[in-house]
Amino acid sequence: MVAIKLHELSKSFQGPVINQLSLTIPDQQITALIGPSGSGKSTLLNMIAGLTTPDSGQISFDNQPIFDAATHWNQPPAQRHLAMVFQDFALWPHMTVQENVAFALEKHLTKPELTAQVNWALEQVSLIDFRHRYPRELSGGQQQRVALARALATQPDLILFDEALSALDPELRTRLQLEIRALIHDQHLTAIFVTHDRPEALQVADHLVLLQGGNVVQTGTPAQLYQQRQNLNLSPILWAPLIRSTRTRPFARNMSQSVKRVLSSPLTKAWCSVQPLWAIILILTFKSAPMIGTSRPSYPIPLHRSH
User: Fold this and answer.
1) How far is Cα 103 from Cα 96, in angstroms, rounded to an integer?
2) In which order are the strands placed within the sheet that holds 56-61?
């Protein structure tokens, strides 16, 4: 667990990307960095990881500086006790699952310790039975679990996710969002989640940081950002997922399933065969059911998530 404090960070490439940014990221929570493309999300994540050097400012972990431009102190990434999970999984194709997870640990542990640590990490992501397979023999979701197990195996204080789930199909992505959230909380870790997917941020995060033009526009829980949105001059696209309740999706899905059951029932088929007009009426009526479900009145997202 680690609390992160950023003080007046700046970074420019051909132009300013991060502008005198100050931010505190709470420990033992999942913080999502959201904002439009070019707002500085990935740059900020890379500066925390030590992969990009800020032009000015200070970064502290638990009040201990890991970067300070004024004193020219920059702690190497390997000494920051963090792990990263990327979009492309970054698995060695010639290594088994077990060997991929063990790769970063081999120089630091004895063989029995290494085996125990790798098995523990694979158990956390339900892949212990796949440890002798190669990445090509796994699905996309399983490969991402291997990447997560590799991060957990190092026992970091902080895990950084850089668009880690964006390459997966929607159903699998939703399932992994819930699994990652539960795992981070069970291990009492701090995590930062960079994503372009606003519903994903709402699903995963306890704390949101809204970036625009290299500046922090607002921070807080999803409910706090929703309630205060009218005080901000922001693009409506940033708020659409906050306004749209996640409760409408299960309702619409259940409605669609009910429609299918009604239309496919033997009684309906028999009745429609002798009354063709009823068949037309049923089709026209029930085709609109999913739309009716999705337009059900929405509610703000929950004010609090218990851990």
Assistant:
1) 10
2) 16-25, 4-12, 56-61, 64-68, 73-74
